Amino acid sequence: MNRAAVVAGIGSCLPARSVSNAELTTRLDTTDEWIRSRTGISTRRYADQGSATSDLAVGAGAQALKSAGQTSVDVVVVATTTPDRPCPGTAPLVASQLGMTGVAAFDVAAVCTGFLYGLANAAGLIAAGTASSALVIGAETFSSILNPDDRATSVIFGDGAGAVVLRAGDPEEAGALGPCDLGSDGEGQDLITVRAGGSRQRLSGKAPEPGDEYFSMAGKEVFWRAVRRMTESCRAVLDATGTAIGEVDALVGHQANQRILASLADSLGLPRERCLGNLAEVGNTAAASIPLALDHAHANGELRAGQRVLLTAFGGGLTWGSTVLTWPVLSRA
Predict the structure, then answer these.
(1) Which domain holds residue 259?
(2) Residue pair 329/68 in contact by the 8 Å Cβ criterion
(3) Which residue among 130, 145, 169 closes a domain?
(4) What phi-psi label fits residue 142: left (phi over 0), alpha (psi between -120 and 50 degrees) or beta?
C-alpha cells in the first residue's frame, strides 16, 4: 500500500510581547497608515530578552502533539532562519525538550519556504517507511536579526512558531498531503539575505560592512518574483492532482505582504476572500507563517474539515514550494 503523510495534529506559539505600528513610529520615519497600506500589518510579536527560537518551537510542538493525542514521533524537523546557534541544529534540542531522546531530528534552512520544505522532507521519510510519524515545526525569532533602524524590514517581520504532526496513512484520506512542488534559484541569493556571519564573509579576509549582520531584503525585486513563482508552483500541484482552481476552498500562502497575497490570488484566478491568513495580527513570521495561519484559521472556524486547501510559499535562496490537501478533522489542544 502506498503510504502518505497525513496531518494529525496542529499547534502554535506566539511571544507575549505585542508591538504595534504606533510603537514603531516612535523610532522610525513612518506612520501607521503607511505600514497598513503597504503591508497589511497592524501589529507583530517579539520574543522577550532571554528567550530563543527553540522556546517557541517547543511551545508549538507541544500543542501539536497534544492535538494529535501523541507524546512522541519518529522524526522532528525544525524549519528556521534564526536557529538558537549556528551549530548545532535547533531540532535535537527541541526534541529533547519535548521528552524525545533518540529520535531523528534536523533543521531545514529555506527561509520563508522552510515549512513546506520540512513537510516534503517528513512526507518523504514517511512514504519510504523510514518513519511512521513526524513533527514539523516552523519557528522564528526574526526580531533578533532585524536592523532596528531599517523601516523596510522592521515593520514587516515578527516572531512565532507553528507546528503539525504527520502520521502514516492512506493517500485518499482527509489530511493526506498531496504532491509537493519545490524549487530554487540561487542567482537571487542577495535579494533576501544576511550577508555577514557565514563562511563567505568570514573567509573573505575582510571585516563585514556596517549593517551586514542584519537581515536585508530587496522588496520591489522580490514582489513579482514571489507572485510568479508561487503561481507556477500552485498550478503544478493542482495539475498533478487534477484539481481545478475553482475547487480550492482556501489558499494559505506565506504571510509576507497583503499585496503579494492579493496579487497571487488574482494571478491564480481565485477570489481574494478565499485567502486565509493572520498577517495583520502577527506580521511576517517567515518559516512559521503557514503553520501559524493554519492553526489560527482552524481555531476560529475559517478552516473546516473537508475543505480543499492550497499551501504555497516563496523565500530566500531563492526558494519556493506548494502542496495541496483536504483539511481533516482535528482536535484543538
Answers:
(1) 181-326
(2) no
(3) 169
(4) alpha
Joined grid coordinates for residue 188:
537571487
Provide mean pLDDT across the span 225-233: 97
Give the tens place of pLDDT for each residue, 306-319: 999 999 999 999 99
Question: Per residue in 263-291, pLDDT tens?
Answer: 999 999 999 999 999 999 999 999 999 99
Contact call for residues 174 and 330 (beta carbons, < 8 A): no
CATH number, domain with residue 300? 3.40.47.10
Residues 25 and 147 reside in one and the same domain? yes
- Pair 231, 313: CB distance under 8 Å: no
Q: Is 1's pLDDT higher than 90?
A: no
The residues assigned a catalytic role are: 112, 254, 284
93 and 229 belong to one structural domain: no
Counting the structural domains of the chain, the total is 2
Q: Which residue has the cell 496542529?
A: 10
In angstroms and rounded to an integer, the radius of gyration of the C-alpha atoms of the chain is 19
Contact by Cβ (8 Å): 177, 6: yes
151 with 129, same domain: the answer is yes
Residues 119 and 32 in one domain: yes
Asked if 177 and 323 touch (Cβ cutoff 8 Å), the reply is yes
- Specify the residue for cell string 531523528: 104
Residue of 61, 59, 51, 60 whose CA lies nearest to 82: 51
**Spacing of C-alpha 310 from chain mean position:** 14
Quick one: residue 306, left, alpha or beta (phi over 0 = left, psi -120 to 50 = alpha)? Answer: left
Whether residues 217 and 301 fall in one domain: yes
